[in-house]
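S1.2 Input.
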Amino acid sequence: MLEIVYAENIIVGVVKDNQFTWYILDKDDLYDVLYDQLDYVAMSNLIEEHKTTVEYLRTCMLKEHYRCADDTLKFNPSVYINFDTMCLFSLYPEYTAFERMVYGNWKGKFFDFMDIIPEEGKYWIVNGKNYIEDTFNYFVKKGIRAEWDVQ
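S1.3 Output.
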């Protein structure tokens, strides 16, 4: 399974036929999917090998919890693609605007989609604790910022 490396690989949630699945994609693979105008067959052929599970994402996240601010960011879901409703939402924090790369009848928007992820897909929630939010708050309290956010 692809290792999650901040700003190189991103976590993408995909809905097709009401089924939700996580993927860990190289950014270039996502560009290829968007270049193919979000064609599901092309996307499946391109990224099927990068399918992942909630358990894998959770295990990786917990292993790196509190290491550094950038490690926290790499576990944030970056893109949500819903083939049923033809929408793409992006939370990607870098300069790439995936939401602007949609074509035709697709809708793209920079939008915090974490609340629309099915509960069983929220790998960052463990025993009621939101580890992404908790880790972010930990670094804010310590005055530590992510490398990309330092001015």
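S1.4 Remarks. The CA atoms of residues 15 and 82 lie 5 Å apart.
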